[in-house]
Every structure is written in structure tokens, then in C-alpha cells.
Amino acid sequence: MPRIVSVASAVPDHVFYQEDIRHAVQQMFSASFRDLERLLPIFQNAQIDKRHFCVPMDWFQRNHSFAEKNRLYIENAVDLGARAVTRCLDKAGLAPEDVDCFLFVSSTGIATPAIDVRIANGLAMKPSLRRLPLWGLGCAGGCAGVARAAEMASARPGRPVLLLALELCGLTFLWGDRSKGNLIATSLFGDGAAAALIVEDGPTSASEGASPSPSLSPQIIASRTTRWPDTLDIMGWDVQDEGLKVIFSRDIPSFVLRHIPPAVDEFLQEQRLDRSAIDRLIAHPGGAKVISAYEECLGLSPEQTRLSRQVLREYGNMSSATILFVLEKAMEEKSTGSCHGGSCGNRGGCGCGDSGGSGGEYALMTALGPGFCSELALLRW
């Protein structure tokens, strides 16, 4: 069974606090909206304190070409991605040359040669490294990446598979787009990267570092994709001369309420489980309303979604990378036994940091992305 050995994140150096962003947007959009004051509470309602970006605040005050934005994407993605990868490998006690396969997930820029091979060259990974760049999965990419990495790890037991999800959402800002959708995007998205190392138990592990304690490294039990026809307009990009214009429907929370419960129930039934078996929810925090919708439709307590809300508050929505930030925090709590107030949802007593009972502790990873698609993964400590 494949296990997640380590997860590590990295963020750019420029930190913007939500109130400062709100003030800058107010000045920028004041001539475009007669009712701007009525819309500005979205910054407070987003429940975000700060976000990180690869460019300074004044970069957003003028127009930039798609070519310029993409050059910045490549430059910053290589640096930020290498930082996340190095931290992830250090946690696992592995060297870059130990990696057998490298999956790279991103949707906020384009590069050929891809970002993963640029990072592989910079870190001196082995020439026989297998690579799989995945583009266009959007916010679902982190969870889908875990699923695909698990499949590749299972095919070659003992050989480490590296997953990197990286998004520079700030570079997709369109200065000339004064639409309400662009205004809402300025209240929500940020930049970040996270890497995960996944290994199937086997005799060919690169080092002892790739064989962690089972109580600390969750198994990836199963995964599932659900795609709903005729939903292409819910989320994605509208590619324009100036760059990537974000598309996302205001109806996503209501979509979650209607469609996620049957998708989750079918997935769990395949594993002979039901919702009562889930101790933790590791959800992509697409927004505060989306998290609330998960709580409502799956019967979860706010404690069970606390880590998703915490990541949203500290970093905003970083698209595909965000769910791996949540996973990193969940694994840190598990390793230290620092579960707060039963947030893991482990009924009958917190098992964080324990070797676990006969059934272990289950966590459900969930994310939504363009298509419109749901990605689910079942983990067990």
C-alpha cells in the first residue's frame, strides 16, 4: 500500500495583508463600480488574514503582457518549487537522486521544457528520472496528484515518487479586467507550492528514510474522480491576449451541497465504509463558503475542518497546492499528538501520535476543479 512519507510547503517572500489588499483594490476599482463599497466586505467575509505573492504590491498597479507574466512564472516557479522539493526530501531523509518519478501539477503558467525538468536539472536528480507534468486540473490538482502518484508508486514498490503542486495565482491578475469576478478573485487567491513524497513499501527503497513509522505516514487506500457533464462553465480559464482570465461560478457552494454527498457516499461504499468512519477531512479550502458547505452536507463539525480554515486564513486559496498545505498540517499534528479539541474527529478519544487501533484513523481528501470534477482520496493512519 502506498504511503505519504513527507509533505513540505514553501511560499514567496512578499506578504500582503488582507486589509492592505482591500485598500489597493478600492483605489484600483473605484472608477469601475458605482456600488464598490457594497462589494468590499468580500475581503472580510473571505476569512483570510494574509497571502503570499512572488511579486511586490506595485506590480499589480500596471498592465503586463502575457509573455512577461509567463517569464515571471517560470523564474519564480523553479525557485519556489525547488525550495518545497528540498524541504520535502530533507524530511524524508532522501537526496534528490533518490527520486524515481516526478509529478508536477500547475495551471497558472506554461513552460516547455516543463518546470519539473528545470528543477530536476538544478537539484541534480538522476538522468533516468520518470516525469509526468499535469496541467489544467486547477484547484483539484493537489488531490488528483496524490492519487496519480500513489498509482505510480504502486507500480514500482520501494521507489520514491515525488509530487509537486505549484501555483502563482497572482500572476494571472488582469489589470484591465474590472469585472466583478476579477474583483472577487483579488480577495481570495495567493501563491504557494507544496511537495509530497509517496512510496509503496518494498525492498528497493532508496534509503531508510523512505520507510517511516506507519503511525506517522498515512496509507493511500483509494481514490476516485467524479465528472459532471455540461459543467465546463463553472471553473477554468478564459485565455485572452493579456493572460489567463479566471472563471468561477458563485454557485459552487450550492453545487457542493447537491452533488458531493452522493459522490462521497459512493466512494466510501466501495471501501465498505460510510461517513461515520471519517475522522478527518482534508479539504481544499476553495473559500469560506465552500468549507461551510462541506460541513453542512457531510455532517461535519467545524473542528473537523479547522485545518482547512487555518490554511485559508494564513495563505488564501493557492489552487492545487492548497490541499497539500492542509495535509502537511494534519501530518504534523499526527506526529506530535497536538490535535486541538478533538479536531481529528476521532470519536472515543484522540489517537493522534498513537500507533492506532485495529482500524486506524481515516481521513478524506477532497477537492473540486475544472471539468467540473471532484477528486477524492481516502487515507488511513
UniProtKB/TrEMBL annotation:
GO biological process, one term: polyketide biosynthetic process
Gene Ontology molecular function, alphabetical: acyltransferase activity, transferring groups other than amino-acyl groups
Active site: 139
Pfam family, one: Chal_sti_synt_C
Domain Chalcone/stilbene synthase N-terminal: 4-200
Domain Chalcone/stilbene synthase C-terminal span(s) in chain numbering: 225-379
Domain of life of the organism encoding this protein: Bacteria
Keywords: Acyltransferase, Transferase
Protein family membership: Belongs to the thiolase-like superfamily. Chalcone/stilbene synthases family.
PANTHER family: 1,3,6,8-TETRAHYDROXYNAPHTHALENE SYNTHASE, HYDROXYMETHYLGLUTARYL-COA SYNTHASE
Protein name (database record): Type III polyketide synthase
Taxonomic source organism: Heliomicrobium undosum
